[in-house]
Amino acid sequence: MSHRTIDPKTIVTLGVPNYTHAVASEAATRWLHLSGQVGVAPDGRTADGALAQCRQALANVAALLAADGMTVDDVVHMRIFLLDRADIPALREARGEFLGDRRVASTLVLVSGLVDPAWKVEIEVVAAR
């Protein structure tokens, strides 16, 4: 199975790392929809700072993918909820570490709060294999 990015010249190119307007999953037979993951470690501790929380949320995503026999290569969409616009560079850094050169369809929404006031980010993922 392969994932094909779609970025037609009829839509503006945003120049955002790891971003594509759309992903087509050819011959996908299994889809995995992850609930929003936050920067909380398995021991229940919330990571300090935006970069650490983004990295932990993505580590949680990786653990869920692995639990279903998938990898980052199966990710086709990310929906990210972020509290502070100033944390976008930290998010992009963590997302770049997680995705490498891969580009996925994604949505970034700035929100006024998450369930726990200590949380700075929540990341939902859709994967296909």
Automatic annotation (TrEMBL):
<dbReference type="InterPro" id="IPR035959">
    <property type="entry name" value="RutC-like_sf"/>
</dbReference>
<dbReference type="Pfam" id="PF01042">
    <property type="entry name" value="Ribonuc_L-PSP"/>
</dbReference>
<dbReference type="InterPro" id="IPR006175">
    <property type="entry name" value="YjgF/YER057c/UK114"/>
</dbReference>
<protein>
    <submittedName>
        <fullName>Enamine deaminase RidA</fullName>
    </submittedName>
</protein>
